[in-house]
């Protein structure tokens, strides 16, 4: 009996450590939106930590109560969410009886030179290059005119799925915003299966889960989707309503890097409107990218 009681001591200590650390963090510290409602607990709530870590509230509650063992990937995620330093992270792993390992960091992505040259040559076709997680690596001036002026967005926030959920102008742009947003979530799910320990992907999912209930719901549906061709109807402030073909081209030199282009068949109203947009973009002198690293 004594042995079974003492065997839970490390788990209880781990739970107390997690509670203490979340009580010392404010929502603003981890990038959560502030609210006017009074908070009944100091620091973060259990459900906030769980969402930021992309795990269920029940799972996290069991960890704090010493009723469940945590896997190394979950511990690594919690260490990032709770802003633990190296010593605290090591202590967390020690309490859980796990060997501390760092997830392998992937190299910095930089737009492939061939894709950058294609962007520069596209004067009548909007195009952007995206990388892992939907990070926007590069764009041409016409894409800035069609979608948004990406140069005005801080580099760390230049992510297409994020913009779909947090930028009201992007919500207004898509006639079927919900359909486009659902696809973006499903594509993120597909990437999460490929890179389950990508810290920036985990951070992105946690942030959007906290900011948007629809994202949290759709993420929980576990639907997946690959990037394919299709059509998008946009409510554009200059062109009005227009339906464009949307195609995705994957770079052979970096399979995690792809170009999205919007086109229209010649001699169609949509094609004429793209030409009008190109003329407007030239007058506005909207900047194209010179190649952004992410």
UniProtKB/TrEMBL annotation:
Gene3D superfamilies: 3.30.450.180, lambda repressor-like DNA-binding domains (1.10.260.40)
Polar residues biased stretches: 24-36
Top-level taxon: Bacteria
Domain HTH cro/C1-type: from-to ranges: 43-89
Region (Disordered), start-end ranges: 20-41
Protein name: Helix-turn-helix domain-containing protein
Species for this entry: Streptomyces gottesmaniae
Lineage: Bacteria, Bacillati, Actinomycetota, Actinomycetes, Kitasatosporales
């Amino acid at each position: 009996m004594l042995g079974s009681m003492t065997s839970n001591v490390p788990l209880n200590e781990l739970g107390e450590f997690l509670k203490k650390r979340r009580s010392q963090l404010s929502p603003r510290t981890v990038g959560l939106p502030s609210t006017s409602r009074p908070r009944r607990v100091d620091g973060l709530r259990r459900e906030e930590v769980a969402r930021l870590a992309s795990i269920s509230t029940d799972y996290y509650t069991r960890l704090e109560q010493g009723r469940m063992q945590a896997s190394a990937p979950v511990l690594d995620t919690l260490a990032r969410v709770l802003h633990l330093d190296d010593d605290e992270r090591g202590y967390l792993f020690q309490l859980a009886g796990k060997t501390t390992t760092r997830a392998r960091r992937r190299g910095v992505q930089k737009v492939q030179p061939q894709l950058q040259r294609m962007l520069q040559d596209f004067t009548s076709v909007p195009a952007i290059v995206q990388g892992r997680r939907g990070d926007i690596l590069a764009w041409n001036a016409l894409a800035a005119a069609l979608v948004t002026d990406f140069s005005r967005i801080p580099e760390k926030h230049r992510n297409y799925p994020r913009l779909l959920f947090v930028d009201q102008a992007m919500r207004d742009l898509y006639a079927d915003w919900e359909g486009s947003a659902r696809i973006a979530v499903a594509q993120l799910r597909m990437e999460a299966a490929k890179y389950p320990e990508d810290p920036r992907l985990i951070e992105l999912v946690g942030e959007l889960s906290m900011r948007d209930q629809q994202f949290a719901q759709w993420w929980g549906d576990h639907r997946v989707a690959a990037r394919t061709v299709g059509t998008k109807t946009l409510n554009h402030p200059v062109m009005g309503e227009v339906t464009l073909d949307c195609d995705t081209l994957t770079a052979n030199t970096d399979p995690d890097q792809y170009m999205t282009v919007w086109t229209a068949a010649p001699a169609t109203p949509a094609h004429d409107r793209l030409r009008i947009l190109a003329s407007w973009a030239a007058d506005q002198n909207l900047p194209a990218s010179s190649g952004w690293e992410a």
